[in-house]
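FORM 12-B: Structure-to-Sequence Request
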């Protein structure tokens, strides 16, 4: 969760909390899967943006 704040995607921290609660309650996979896919996409986008920034620094 702290890493998401650092990457600038703080709005998704609440989704992580929700995922944690659902996983702890052993929610059905059909409920968890779309949330995990969404979070994965957000993290990949944030990583791509950070990588582009680093690449720009090295240019």
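FORM 12-B RESPONSE
SEQUENCE OUT:
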């Amino acid at each position: 969760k702290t890493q998401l704040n650092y990457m600038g995607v703080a709005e998704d921290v609440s989704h992580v909390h929700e995922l944690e609660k659902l996983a702890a309650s052993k929610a059905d996979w059909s409920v968890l899967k779309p949330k995990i896919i969404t979070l994965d996409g957000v993290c990949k986008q944030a990583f791509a943006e950070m990588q582009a920034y680093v690449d720009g620094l090295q240019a």
